[in-house]
Amino acid sequence: MPFHTRLLGKDRMALFSFIHSLNTNFGTSIFEPVAKALASTNFQSALSQQVAGIQISSEAHNVIQNIMDNLATANSNPDKPIEIEALRAVCQQGQMRKVKLTKVDIKLIAHDGTIYLFDIKTAKPNAGGFKEFKRTLLEWVAAALADNPSANVQTIIAIPYNPYDPQPYNRWTMRGMLDLRNELKVAEEFWDFLGGQGTYQQLLDIFEHVGIELRPEIDEYFARYNQA
Fold first, then answer.
1. Quick check: 227 and 10 in contact, CB under 8 A?
2. CA dist list (Å): 97 to 58, 92, 152
3. Mean pLDDT, to the nearest integer, of 149-165?
4. Do 104 and 37 form a contact (C-beta atoms < 8 A)?
5. Which of 81, 138, 158, 161 could be disulfide-bonded to 190 (CB atoms 3.0-4.6 Å)?
6. Structurally, how many domains does the chain consist of?
7. What are the pLDDT digits (tens) for 72-92?
8. Which of 195, 198, 185, 57 lies closest to 117, judged by CA?
9. Alpha helices, DSSP H only, in the chain?
10. 137/121 Cα distance (integer angstroms)
11. Could you give the 3-state DSSP secondary structure of residue 95?
């Protein structure tokens, strides 16, 4: 990026590249393994990068498309419990079609047998992306129920932190597509669900402590880019 470098300087560009790399890799390198480790103490099972299922019935495909069409045209509001039961009713009807779905970032099984499938997203997803997020959540339900029609399965979008803090997370971009009560957990809602009340604040304190410990090493790294 020669124009950017000459305009801003090597030190600022190095910082920009470093932060961009962190943003890109935090999900798989930090958020997923930390979520898995936290949940393993409170859930029967906690796994990352899992497959929700390998097949969906043709009738379930039709129900998913019908739900998506009604949401897109605002003919109905998202209601996850109703949507799940609609998929349960047809989860093994018609032709069973093999599918290759988006992998589940975090799969939890609670002690009561409830299955939680999480899709971890960046803090500011593109508003237009929520349509595909919704389809993914519905497909995960259909695939899980195809394997076990009586399963209690919940599929959820997780956003690890609130970029608007201390203001509430701006959820309006999702309203009309996601059931905000049942399909979304942001910041404290997500981390405290995994590890118990107060987990989110403890995580922030840990990151601050590590940052203080690494400060000399980080400063030394960026010093090489400082311009006279």
1. yes
2. 7, 10, 22
3. 93
4. no
5. 158
6. 1
7. 898 999 999 999 999 999 999
8. 185
9. 2-8, 10-26, 32-39, 58-72, 80-90, 130-147, 188-195, 199-223
10. 13
11. coil
Residue 135 falls within a domain, yes or no?
Answer: yes
Domain that holds residue 83: 51-197
Instruction: Please give the mean pLDDT across all residues of the chain.
Output: 91
Q: Does 36 map to a domain?
A: no
Among the listed residues 187, 219, 217, 220, the one whose alpha carbon sits nearest the alpha carbon of residue 204: 187
Domain membership flag for residue 8 = no
The label of the residue with tokens 């690494």 reads 214
* Averaged pLDDT, 41-70: 97
Q: Would the pLDDT of 153 be above 60?
A: yes
Q: Rounded CA gap, 143 and 87, in Å?
A: 10
Q: Is residue 192 part of a domain?
A: yes
Structure tokens at 18: 């470093």
The terminus-to-terminus CA distance of the chain in angstroms comes to: 21
Distance (Å, whole) CA 77 – CA 69 = 11
CATH number of the domain bearing residue 66: 3.40.1560
Note whether 119 and 138 are within 8 A (CB): no
pLDDT in tens, 32-42: 999 999 999 99
Taking every pair of C-alpha atoms in the chain, what is the biggest distance, in angstroms? 71
Among positive and negative, which fits the CA dihedral 166, 161, 133, 16?
positive
Which SS3 state, helix, strand or coil, does residue 84 take?
Answer: helix
pLDDT digits 0-9 by tens, 183-205 = 999 999 999 999 999 999 999 99
